[in-house]
Amino acid sequence: MNSMKKILKEWKSFLRESDESSPTGTGERLKKHFANLVAGGISASEYNKKLAAKHIIAALKAFEDKEGFIKKNKKHVFPVLNELISLTTEGGEGKYFSVYLTGAQRDKVGSVSAIVALADFADWKVSFDDLETLKQFAGTLKEMISNDDYDFNIFKPETELVGEKPRSFGRGTGGVQKPPRLSPKEEEEFEAISLPWFRAAGEVLSVLDRSREITIREWYNTLLEEARQRIIFFSYLEKKWREKTDPNSYFSGSLIFNYSMAVADAEDSVERLKAEIANIQPTAEEKVEDLMAKAKAGDKEAAKEARKMLLALKRTKEARQMRMLSR
User: Fold this and answer.
1) Residue 130: pLDDT over 50
2) Closest alpha carbon to 140 in 258, 261, 255
């Protein structure tokens, strides 16, 4: 799991760096765009506001502010960020940003995708699931800057954490966000607690994607294990987000609520699935496997019954073994 996450992260980093360093890449063209602004005689104040817009998008893309521009230029950043927040209600064009919905999403058909781009350089952009998510992220960014928190890793796309996400497993589970500002020890704790759920969720996906065939009992047990691991992981997420952030903020409060609902749903699922499993009638294969286990433990009557069933199932080699154990 760790190696796959590392490969995904390094690949995305490679693509990002290649695009920014290439003479025709977005990063290089953006530099030329700002150089042209200076050559055109733009005022220092307006130039800094346009730079602020660029850095705001970079922050929402989870880029590190290596030069500390946002920290040093709050007086320019806040009014520009306020414009972005004002555009999150319905989208539209502002002085510094363009916010719009793409493709079929304009008609609100299917899942929504919202784009934020520089008003005068459309290729510098970042996308969100919908306008509400954009509003949450922009509000969180403003709150972070107000509190001198510049760890923009919080905005990393979910896929960098959990891999591709073709399906979710219930309310709250499709929005996993790693808690911010984890210590090295807490990072290890996060890995240890999250990995069992990722594995269990992957098992569910392997069945849904028909990559393996299983019995109804195995299917319910697979779902049961995912629900049990979800309780552990999402309880941990809820606790850490309460510890590491202000639970009264809109963004953190929404995540905390979602995680608590995911736990409640999983608890309901555990009870329902246990009842379903208890009511499943064992198949002939399951019955004979149970009898064989009892026979190997010394139950001669179970060995006799297992032998009969094995002969009916044409498993003659195992039937001979049961005959020996029945004596």
Assistant:
1) yes
2) 255
The Cα 100–Cα 90 span in angstroms is 8
Which H or E run contains 93? strand 92-93
DSSP string, 242-290: HHHS-TTSHHHHHHHHHHHHHHHHHHHHHHHHHHHHHHPPPPHHHHHHH
pLDDT in tens, 29-83: 888 888 888 888 889 999 999 999 999 999 998 888 888 999 999 999 999 999 9
> Which two structure tokens, joined as six digits, stand for 169?
């497993």
CB-side neighbour CA atoms (13 Å) of 268 = 8
61, 258, 265, 241: which is closest to 174 by C-alpha?
A: 258
194-249: per-residue pLDDT in tens?
999 988 888 887 777 665 567 788 888 899 999 999 999 999 999 999 998 888 87
* pLDDT for residue 160 is more than 50: no
pTM metric for this prediction: 0.47
The tokens of 231 are what? Answer: 């309780």
Q: Give me the residues paired with residue 128 across strands.
A: 114
Q: Are the CB atoms for 102 and 91 separated by under 8 Å? A: no
Beta bridge partners of 117: 98, 125
Termini Cα distance of the chain: 49
Residue 133 pLDDT: 83
Whose tokens are 């899942």? That residue is 111
